[in-house]
UniProtKB/TrEMBL annotation:
EC category: oxidoreductase
Keywords: Oxidoreductase
EC numbers for this chain: 1.-.-.-
GO molecular function terms attached to this record: oxidoreductase activity
UniProt source species: Streptomyces pseudovenezuelae
Membrane-traversing stretches: none
Keyword flag Oxidoreductase: yes
InterPro entries listed in its UniProt record: F420-G6PD/mer (IPR050564), F420_Rv3093c (IPR022526), Luciferase-like_dom (IPR011251), Luciferase-like_sf (IPR036661)
Gene3D superfamilies attached to this UniProt entry: Luciferase-like domain (3.20.20.30)
Residue ranges of every copy of the Luciferase-like domain listed in the record: 1-294
Protein name: LLM class F420-dependent oxidoreductase
Length: 318
């Protein structure tokens, strides 16, 4: 199992600079890659540049970038710009995001998300491998001056069309907050789609909330992140089947985040993540590996554990 670390601003009361602390800890502890997450607070390419300037070794991936809010060239140029400034490989992750983010943050229509993802993945892949001197886009009088960023193309996927896009164009497919059972099913779909596309299946990674020996603040932060998934098709069923149907019903009725956190038992945190003592977390890692996951991208709880230091130290590469 490979491990990477996610540095993303949480939309709660955590410090806005917390992603930098997480990234610096990950670099110091020997993790190979840090994801600079996109969100309402940070632009992922700016955050990736700041992380690159504050660290020494880690490779970087920016995103997932919502495909309805950037054009393919802007995305590829962003990665190349970061790589030129930090002197390290930089990859790009693409995703459809959600209506809540695309329309509620960017004020853009989330139209034809699966089709736009497919179009952009194909275009971004070409741009990521273009050489200096080539037109920035076919027929343009402007030419590239920056070298390729050197990192992988990742596609965040969950539904069949997005999985087919990842299988056809990506170096890596990304899942978000999933159980081992979901990984097993999605791994099978990815392998089948790659076979249909005539490609070797891309690596399969997942962003997973992580908290080793969590204190109550860490646990509440993980549960707060999970609460946002209780009404999402494909996730609500997982939580209901795991015995958390009351919380799912509350979410469907419009309950706020704090109400949902109070309604979710501590055990819910381990349903789609790595939460508990070190032995329990290691057993959970084994379950994800057995289900077909290639890489765990740790999203460490930082409440009660600044920079995710405790969790990242416990799970640091050997």
């Amino acid at each position: 199992m490979d491990f990477s670390v996610v540095a993303v601003a949480r939309e709660d009361d955590s410090p806005v600079e917390e992603p930098l602390r997480v990234a610096v800890a990950a670099d110091r502890l020997g993790y190979r890659e840090v994801w600079a997450g996109e969100g309402p607070t940070w632009d992922s390419f700016v955050l990736a540049t700041a992380i690159g300037r504050a660290t020494e070794r880690v490779a970087l991936t920016a995103g997932p970038v919502p495909v309805n809010v950037r054009d393919p060239y802007t995305t590829a140029r962003g990665a190349a710009s970061v790589a030129a400034l930090v002197g390290r490989p930089v990859g790009v992750a693409l995703g459809t995001s959600s209506k809540r983010v695309v329309e509620g943050v960017h004020d853009r229509p989330r139209a034809r998300p699966a089709a736009v993802l497919e179009e952009q993945a194909a275009a971004v892949r070409r741009f990521l491998h273009a050489s200096p001197g080539e037109p920035v886009v076919p027929g343009s009088p402007f030419h590239r001056r920056l070298p390729p960023p050197g990192g992988p193309l990742t596609v965040a996927a969950f539904g069949p069309r997005a999985i087919a896009t990842a299988a056809a164009h990506a170096d890596r497919m990304l899942l978000d907050v999933v159980s081992p059972a979901q990984v097993r099913a999605l791994r099978a779909q990815l392998d089948a789609a790659a076979g249909k596309a005539g490609r070797t299946p891309p690596a399969l990674a997942a962003w997973l909330p992580a908290a080793v020996d969590p204190d109550p603040r860490s646990l509440a932060q993980v549960l707060g992140g999970i609460a946002g998934y209780l009404t999402v098709p494909g996730y609500s069923e997982v939580f209901a089947e795991a015995g958390f149907g009351d919380a799912v019903e509350l979410a469907a009725g419009g309950a706020d985040r704090q109400t949902l956190v109070r309604a979710l038992p501590a055990a819910a945190a381990g349903t789609v993540g790595l939460v508990g003592d070190l032995d329990a977390v290691r057993a959970r890692i084994d379950a994800y590996a057995e289900a077909g996951l290639d890489e765990i991208a740790l999203v460490p709880a930082t409440a009660g554990d600044p920079g995710g230091e405790r969790t990242l130290t416990a799970l640091r590469p050997a």
